[in-house]
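2024-03-11 09:14:02 INFO queue: dequeued item NAD(+) diphosphatase, len=292
2024-03-11 09:14:02 INFO validating residues
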Amino acid sequence: MTDPRPLTFTRSPLDFSGLERADADWIAARREHPEARVLLLHKGDLATDSAGEPFVVRARETRDLPLDRPGLVFLGVWNGVPWFCAALKPGSVPDGVPFRLAAMKAEADFACLMGRARSLLSWHGRRKFCSNCGAENRPDPGGLKLDCPACGMEHFPRVDPSVIMLPHAGDRCVMGRQASWPPGMYATLAGFMEPGETIEEACARETKEEIGRTVLKAEYIESQPWPFPSSLMIGLIAEIDEGELFPDDDLEDARWFTREEVRALYESEMAKWAPPNFSISRRLIDTWLNRG
Ligand SMILES: [Zn+2]
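2024-03-11 09:14:37 INFO prediction written
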């Protein structure tokens, strides 16, 4: 059975307030809101308080904290409460919980906040200077845009679309493995989209590059924001021509699997590496299994 729960990082409860957030007065009022909360990250991981819980403070309590630039970044409004995020200066606090582990354990709504916070703060960490002229960027009131005071260029948070797909033919599918994965682990194929191609074309190109087979039909299934650091995983199931596989250098191996073999793999210890609702890879595999 496909896991009925939404994928992690999807169905965010946040209202991003896109029409209001560029207004400095509006953002200031959200910061002054008595319930306003700030989620704190440290080196891309979840900062934790002395009890080991996610480090969430009131907005006014951040004044004495060693925040990295640009300070508070507006996440959105959740159940009437404004939420912000901020990065603590590297090394200013003990290391927290690895982000991936924390996200797997988090309640679904909170995981959406965590993912948005990680992507936005990672973007800020890599966009101190204007990519056009090299001057130092200035954040807009909510931290959702950077303006270059020298050349006037506006910089917006990045999202990098990637295709992720499970190729199949007849009653078998193809999964690959990277050398860095746990021994015996196999999963879907994936790669970044390139300028000038559609989702279907990216799926066909990546499949050809990674296993040397031709996509006959690509079917979109679902997508998932993936905050490592700011991908959008576009999930497909791809019918391919049956034949020998030619794994490229990114893959240590690629193999044809029957449904029985896939089930055996994902009912083994391997399952913990791809929990059912955490990764779209597992969701695509489960979707295909259920069609058999
Ligand atoms: Zn500039």
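2024-03-11 09:14:37 INFO annotate: The pocket of zinc ion is lined by residues 130, 132-133, 135, 148, 150-151, 153 (CB under 6 Å).
2024-03-11 09:14:38 INFO item closed
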